[in-house]
Specification:
single chain, three-stranded mixed β-sheet, CBS-domain, alpha+beta, 12 helices
């Protein structure tokens, strides 16, 4: 089941609505329109509860406020994407979801100065929207607040101003996946290796999440507990993602690939395919008949009924969605290609010739090897080898 709905493109970037956004939208409309208790921040009303108007008018203003607020969140993400693109980073998509927006980027810049500017662009846009909204509210309040519509517009501007200032401040908390976590990582990366900076920034993020969670429990604030869980998971996932990427960075695919390629013929039966899997221990094969035709995996073969194993051919169940990579491609980019294409195997082609395959297990093995090697190196740095004791003369 698809969890995202595409609604268009802006600056060539696909824009999606996540299903969680559609769930939270009616709740925001209600909270902005007519909750039982009026909410005030710095003395300003944050809902239309006390607006002297019919209920449907309050809900009309609440709906407008909700849509404008999420439009400002989209602007926040668009600011990130605009700055990232200026540094040559490819933006795959922008998705609006329950906790705001997410920009999906091909790769983050390793330059601390570039990452700092890219991360700060979002909160800066929210800050600009917030300040502009409040200044406009104060400017037009004496002019239009006498009418019911004018009063609603004043409340709307104040609401947009305060919530965008809060959005800017919240995003600057130094915790992944918020922008402040990336700013902190950029600062640390200017003083230490990128992976070490990520680990430290992720640790700070987890501490913040734990603190928010404890505060949410004692104040019975379920939403704060939910945010704390989101921050904790986000910090851990960022650390894991960077660990994997850094471990594979600079390693060519040819060092990971299985060179002695076992292939399947399209006329093989699924029964023969299962026998080949048992004999080789491999769960997937390129399908070749004078040329590469596709890929067949265990996942497709198990869908065939037992009574048809000797009848159904490999050509009937193979997938033609073959994702190929070059043997000299960086392994981190190859892994990203695998995830983007949602396949479990990459075919390695050298000038059109099949020279190997790479599976998800091969990437895991390479990452574990890199981490083990790094651990041994750190152990050696902490406890350097001592010279052998001198023999008595």
């Amino acid at each position: 089941m698809a969890t995202e709905i595409r609604i268009g493109r802006i600056l060539g970037i696909p824009v999606y609505l996540h299903l969680t956004f559609l769930i939270i939208l009616p709740l925001f409309v209600y909270l902005f329109s007519a909750p039982q208790t009026q909410v005030r921040i710095f003395g300003m009303p944050m809902t239309f509860t006390d607006l002297d108007a019919d209920l449907w008018v309050k809900y009309a203003f609440g709906t407008a406020a909700t849509l404008i607020f999420f439009l400002t969140i989209f602007t926040h993400e668009l600011a990130h994407s605009y700055v990232a693109r200026s540094y040559g980073v490819k933006i795959r998509s922008i998705t609006l979801m329950i906790f705001g927006g997410v920009s999906s980027m091909e790769d983050l810049p390793r330059n601390p100065g570039q990452e700092w500017r890219m991360a700060f662009a979002g909160p800066l846009s929210s800050l600009a929207i917030g300040v502009t909204s409040l200044l406009t509210m104060y400017a037009i309040d004496p002019i239009i607040s006498e009418s019911m519509i004018g009063e609603g517009i004043v409340i709307l501007l104040g609401l947009m101003g305060i919530y965008n200032l809060l959005l800017a401040g919240f995003n600057m908390i130094p915790a992944f996946p918020m922008d402040g976590g990336r700013v902190l990582r950029a600062y640390l990366a200017s003083k230490m290796p990128y992976m070490e900076a990520t680990k430290k920034a992720a640790r700070v993020g987890r501490y913040f999440a734990i603190g928010m969670g404890i505060f949410g429990i004692f104040t019975f604030n379920f939403f704060l507990i939910l945010i704390a869980m989101f921050v904790y998971i986000g910090a851990s996932e960022e650390e894991q993602a960077v660990t994997v990427t850094e471990s594979l960075h600079g390693v060519p695919v040819k060092q990971l690939m299985i060179g002695a390629v076992q292939v399947a013929h399209p006329d093989m039966t699924v029964q023969q395919l299962h026998e080949l899997m048992l004999a080789t221990g491999h769960m997937g094969f390129p399908v070749v008949d004078s040329a590469l035709l596709g890929i067949v995996t265990h996942a497709e073969s198990v869908k065939v009924p037992r009574e048809s194993l000797g009848i159904v051919r490999v050509r009937d169940i193979m997938t033609r969605n073959v994702v190929s990579v070059d043997p000299d491609m960086d392994s981190s980019k190859a892994l990203r290609a695998m995830y983007d294409s949602k396949v479990g195997m990459l075919v390695v082609l050298d000038h059109g010739a099949l020279v190997g395959i790479v599976t998800h297990k091969d990437f895991i093995r390479a990452v574990n090897s890199a981490l083990a090697q790094r651990h041994v190196m750190r152990w050696g740095e902490q406890f350097p080898p001592q010279p052998p004791p001198s023999s008595p003369v």
